[in-house]
Model the fold of this input.
Amino acid sequence: VLLHVIIPVVASAAGVVVVWKSYFSPFTSTGPVYWGLLVFIVVLLITIAALIYLRVTGKEDWMRKAQLVFEQSGGGH
Amino acid sequence: VAGAVKNNGRRGAVAVEADQSGRGTIGTDLRENAVGLPGMLMQGIATIAPSYAILASFVFIVSFAGIVTPWAYLFGGALLALQALNAAQLAKVFPSAGGWYTWIARALHPRAGFFAGVLFSVWLPPVAVLTLSFLSTQVLEPSIKAEYGVTIFWWIWVLASLALVIYFAYQGIVLSEKALIITGSIEILIMVALAFTGLASPGPGGFSFAPLNPGNFGLATNLFLGVVFSIFAFSGWESTGPLAEESKNPKRNVPIGLVGSVIILMIYFVFVTWGYLVGIGVDKVAGIPTASAFPVATLAERVWSGAWVFLLFALLNSAIAVSIACFNGGTRTWYAMGRSGVLPSALGKVNPARKTPVNSINLEVAVQVVAFLCVIIWGAEDVFFTWANAITIGLVLMYILANIGVVKYYLTEAGASSTCCCT
Done:
């Protein structure tokens, strides 16, 4: 439970606080922090648009392949 | 269900064992067992860029944390060590060149994994030009001119270093990881040596343990913000993941690389920032944020005289090492995304002799050209920090997705399989 629940939850909460303190408190409407936020939003929108395109066109076989895990061929441990 | 994934379009297929959900295994065309534990650790360490991170973060963090700056790095590192521990939980069960893309796709949802793949596509590829441009415009060109009266234009540093990085990328993982270990070790040695010299030859205030004394937390203007911004200094440990298919025993070495690189750099940052504060002078810490020259360079000039150029060498080394590491991490992520079909399959093509994802490397070289044009148009400093801020928020979101994946996987799938096997 510690490793697979508590630590992930604590680390996520810390991440939220870091983002809030870095980008929104205080919020600045100019400079690299603001521009970085805008770039991130653009990247996020492009990602969502690409996912919608893949879904609408029925190109979703990648979702199966994206989950494939590497297996060493020669047992090279 | 046994199947085959065409991963390069020309060179045939890679054997795949997959069930209907896609939760199976895949082989690789990359060079297996090429990178040992030292190489995996150095992949994370070099991407964090030990000396470059000092250049990019030290003065800024001192402006918040003051005399207790080592504690800001310690707390920031501890937070990221927790995050690395979470990532290790996924890395040890889902090794893949896709790294975070595959981990999140497998543990949470493929569409969430897609976000991580896009983020790596934005983050790692332009690192070479952006870090080299920032270093050469802010430090190399002005410092060499001031010291020797010679102008070596910033773009000469960028192009020469970039040529070296691209050469290593095309030569293959074995050579580039050796280069990484050598350049990364040199930069750490130089930066630690400077810290030792600072402790041995302290500035105003003399030798002091004050930077390590938690009783001085009250002297910081805002230690919390110091911690927040120290997290950026650690970014880079994530890049160990994409080397999984070239690593020896990836289920062991990738998790160790993730957690180990954060812990090693946490110790490094605490020690060197203590040494630099003592060397600069614990009585002069308040003047660090407003200093006209980079205070660590001023310290190097005072204690090393003419040999202070070793600091410039360490910084250049650091920028080259981080560029090599990011070339490797970025191209392997694209390779995995091309192989899975979410990016053009040509990106999954591998050079049969060198076992390198050659089209992914070609594309990454093209990204350097675009990044270089951005630097020329908007200036190195603005482009570097805009990119840094964009990827930092993206990385935090990626961490959270991975954390949710850890909880989901271990509470459902792994829990079910362990119940299954125990009963």
